Amino acid sequence: MMNVTDELKSAETKQAYDEFATDFQKLREDITALKADLANLTQQSANDAKSAVKEGLSTAEDHTREAVETAADELQEIQKQAERAVRKKPLSALAGALAIGYFVASLRR
């Protein structure tokens, strides 16, 4: 037979075990919630990084496109100026072309 002291210890042990089981279950729920929060945070960070990269690429593409358009415009202007210069002084242009050709040929030797 159990005496009163043994019964109290048994009741206290059961109560402590029940509290431990409850705390352990809460801990498991908190860990599960933490994992979900961490997964969401990771996904959000990945999405933010992806958006930043896309925006940076778009900006770089825009700047590159503008630079190419500017260079093309400048080359067209240089071509027009060269054509005007050749039309005004065709013999000088021919002499200049021959001089450049001779100079390049001498460099290759």
What do you see in this structure?
The protein is mainly alpha-helical. 95% of the residues lie in helices and 0% in strands. It has two helices and no strands. Helix 1 (4-88) crosses helix 2. It is rod-shaped. It starts with a helix and ends with a helix. The chain crosses the membrane at residues 90-107. This is DUF883 domain-containing protein. Keywords: Coiled coil, Membrane, Transmembrane, Transmembrane helix. Residues 24-88 form a coiled coil.
The secondary-structure element order is HH
Round the mean pLDDT to the nearest integer and report it.
89
Strand proportion, as a percent range, falls in: under 5%
**End-to-end span in angstroms?**
118 Å
Radius of gyration: 42 Å
**Shape field:** rod-shaped
* Helix segment tally: 2
Helix and strand content put the structural class at mainly alpha
Biggest sheet overview: none
Number of strands: 0
In which range does the helix fraction lie?
over 70%
Low-confidence stretches: none
The gist of it:
By secondary structure, the chain is an all-alpha fold. It has helices at 4-88, 90-108.
